[in-house]
């Protein structure tokens, strides 16, 4: 087990200790999750067995205290146990204990200030989200100021990603631990929302992302990501549209010039609360990825997993994704969800980037001509048991049928990949 603390967390705890415990009221909950998942033929080549599976146990405990005088405190420790099996590394077992959130917050009227370890969740989470589906969710250390009055809300933050263990299987030492430190990276940003009607309005934001010269990768990175998002819901219809740009320095001597776009709309029927949806996501690619400027849109603090396919074959870069979706609830506590993604590369010569954006599923090449990546089908069942309050069961099965772009990049191999998981989660 490994427990890591930050100076900001120590400050929060010390300040909390200075306040009389008798004045505080506390609300505590816990969440335990068991998950089994398997990855079959993710290399699109059935002749080479690289299949893997994983069994995970996760415990979250969250306690929130009202300390009086406008002060609140939140502590959220976590404990993780993972058993992973790959053909290359065999069985590996990992464990971790850490603090996923630990902050002190002060509110005075319309203004709030939060100091410590905290999650940043905004909009559709295409840029900033908690990544809660992973065993170790994303979190940040730093400070955030908050303002909300009437239809206007504004957050200002200065943080760096918390350097907690990534739990990634590896033969390198230390096994399973993060091989990249986040200490030399930081985010400074502003995210504002103007609400024009219930569940309808506009977001605007700017986020500065930097790596200093001590960073292990991307030395000198200094990128401004700025954009806007429209959202609305009325008479059964719902939708969002987002446009975002990046300008600045990708790495020392290389500029960043990228953009990304997304639009989705849905309609919900009264029958079984059935929603039909369509979404289109697009980001221009970089036909010459080995020369500057860098034109692939990359922002590593997103939740691409829930937008561009459960199998994590794509990020919001050098891509086109047309998604058709259906969600229905034929019985109380039961939801059936289906998504079909028609995925393509924007530039055949460009890099095909995986879910994290920085990793290359296939490196670009000037001779490539094929852009059709394939079709992903994801089917999910969610069931909340009425007999056991707080228990939720989730099952998913996904298939990625590769297109000509895979065959061209994978020595002619283009076999279907499969992904599945079963989750039991209990909140108490």
Give an account of the 3D structure.
The chain has a single domain, classed as Porin (Beta Barrel), CATH 2.40.160. The protein has an 18-stranded antiparallel beta barrel. Strands 16-17 form a two-stranded antiparallel ribbon. Helices cover 4% and strands 56% of the residues. With 428 residues, it is mainly beta. It is globular, with a radius of gyration of 22 Å. It starts with 6 loop residues before the first helix and ends with a strand.
Number of domains: 1
Q: Number of DSSP strands? A: 20
Would you give the CATH topology?
Porin
Helix fraction by DSSP (H/I, runs of at least 4): under 10%
| Broad shape | globular
SSE ordering: HEEEEEEEEEEEEEEEEEEEHE
**Tally of individual helices:** 2
The biggest sheet, with number of strands, parallel, antiparallel or mixed sense and barrel status, is:
18 strands, antiparallel, barrel
List low-pLDDT spans.
Answer: 1-9, 11-16, 173-180
Rg of Cα set = 22 Å
Known CATH architecture: Beta Barrel
Which percent range describes the beta-strand content? over 45%
CATH level 1 class label = Mainly Beta
Which structural category do the helix and sheet elements fall into?
mainly beta
Please report the distance between the alpha carbons of the first and last residues.
Answer: 24 Å
């Amino acid at each position: 087990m490994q427990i890591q603390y930050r100076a900001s967390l120590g400050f929060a705890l010390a300040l909390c200790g200075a306040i009389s415990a008798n004045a505080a009221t506390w609300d505590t909950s816990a969440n335990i999750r068991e998950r089994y998942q398997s990855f079959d033929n993710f290399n699109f080549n059935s002749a080479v067995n690289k299949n893997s599976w994983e069994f995970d146990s996760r415990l979250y405990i969250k306690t929130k205290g009202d300390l009086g005088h406008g002060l609140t405190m939140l502590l959220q420790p976590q404990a993780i146990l993972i058993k992973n099996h790959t053909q290359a590394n065999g069985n590996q077992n990992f464990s971790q204990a850490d603090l996923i959130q630990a902050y002190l917050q002060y509110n005075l009227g319309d203004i709030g200030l939060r100091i410590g370890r905290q999650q940043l969740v905004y909009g559709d989470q295409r840029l900033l989200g908690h990544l809660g589906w992973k065993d170790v969710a994303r979190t940040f250390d730093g400070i955030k100021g908050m303002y909300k009055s009437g239809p206007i809300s504004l957050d200002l933050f200065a943080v760096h990603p918390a350097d907690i263990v990534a739990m990634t299987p590896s033969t390198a030492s230390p096994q399973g631990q993060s091989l990249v430190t986040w200490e030399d990276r930081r985010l400074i940003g502003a995210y504002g929302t103007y609400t024009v009607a219930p569940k309808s309005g506009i977001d605007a934001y700017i986020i500065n992302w930097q790596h200093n010269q001590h960073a292990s990768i991307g030395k000198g990175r200094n990128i401004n990501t700025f954009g806007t998002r429209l959202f609305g819901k009325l008479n059964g219809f719902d939708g969002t549209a987002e446009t975002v740009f990046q300008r600045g320095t990708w790495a020392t001597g290389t500029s960043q010039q990228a953009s990304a776009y997304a639009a989705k709309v849905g309609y919900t029927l009264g029958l079984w609360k059935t929603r039909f949806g369509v979404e289109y996501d697009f980001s221009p690619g970089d036909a010459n990825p080995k020369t500057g400027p860098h034109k692939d849109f990359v922002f590593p603090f997103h939740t691409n997993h829930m937008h561009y396919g459960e199998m994590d074959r794509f990020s919001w870069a050098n891509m086109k994704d047309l998604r058709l979706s259906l969600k229905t609830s034929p019985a109380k506590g039961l939801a059936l969800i289906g998504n079909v993604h028609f995925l393509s590369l924007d530039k055949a010569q460009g890099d095909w980037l995986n879910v994290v954006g920085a990793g290359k599923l296939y490196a670009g090449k000037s001779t490539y001509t094929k852009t059709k990546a394939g079709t992903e089908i994801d089917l999910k069942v969610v069931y909340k048991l009425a007999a056991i309050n707080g228990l939720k069961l989730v099952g998913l099965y996904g298939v990625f049928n590769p297109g000509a772009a895979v065959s061209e990049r994978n020595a002619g191999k283009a076999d279907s990949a499969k992904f599945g998981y079963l989750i039991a989660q209990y909140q108490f």
